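Hi Q.,

Before the meeting this afternoon, I wanted you to have the 2'-monophosphoadenosine-5'-diphosphate prediction in hand. No need to reply - just skim if you have a minute. The sequence and ligand are here:
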Amino acid sequence: MTDRYGVIGHPIGHSKSPVIHRLFAAQTGEDMTYDAFDVPPEALDARLRAFVREGIRGLNVTVPHKETMARLVDQLTDRAHLAGAVNTVIIAADGRLDGDNTDGVGLLTDLGANLGVRLKDARILILGAGGATRGIIPALLGAGPRELCIANRTLERARDVASHFERLGAIAARRFDELAGATYDLVINATAAGLRGEVAPVPESVVRPETVCYDLSYAMTDTPFIGWTRRLGAMQSHQGWGMLVEQAAEAFFIWRGVRPDTAPVRAKLPR
Ligand code: ATR
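Predicted structure with the ligand bound:
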């Protein structure tokens, strides 16, 4: 029987997950379907129960449901528990829900395996202190950076995130203006500023030609952050397309036990 999967979010119209998972299924010969479902926040609980009744085998979860989903599943993997967010749900035959989070490993695979960025002993700056930041911190700390700093418009939120993860490793919390003069090997944009066409007010001195710049967001053309870093002369600026494909591959592997080749799928998307 054909197994059913899907992604839930609100809005969901622009999600590339169906394209990616259908390419994975075609490549591996897995007998499955994958669809996008628009689920508004107030309907999440009821729709989740309906998906279970209908026999759906797994779900990807995107904005704005990742944190709520962490409270709705029966059990969390360590990495989903640490992130406080779920992007992958495994639905057992008896209806039991397991929540996992493949965002962190997706980012590490894109940075390390695809882009050749060395994280061990690197000085890393994350811009923003929301859910996207929480999702990637455990994986980044696990890679053994020399320094991890979170900078945010609201310092209090950066401090909250730093103290939440302090048992995993040292994290500095700064306001953007406190970054003047500091330099990093890798700067990751995890703010929502780009959604409004803006770039976080970060001192320009942070971006040097050799700084690897990575935007967790992605778009068909340069995101505001990517455009800003290119104008400042960064030689390596990457959107989060690769992370999107890699987190999907990890979810696919969890569901199907088969690891798809991401290269031909990444080649079909912008970079
Ligand atoms: P999510 O949980 O999906 O990451 P969020 O909770 O809205 O989204 O947080 C987004 C992050 O983007 C926050 O760090 C936010 O800063 P504040 O904590 O100060 O609100 C940041 N952000 C949003 N718009 C921004 C802007 N125009 N400039 C700089 N930072 C911005």
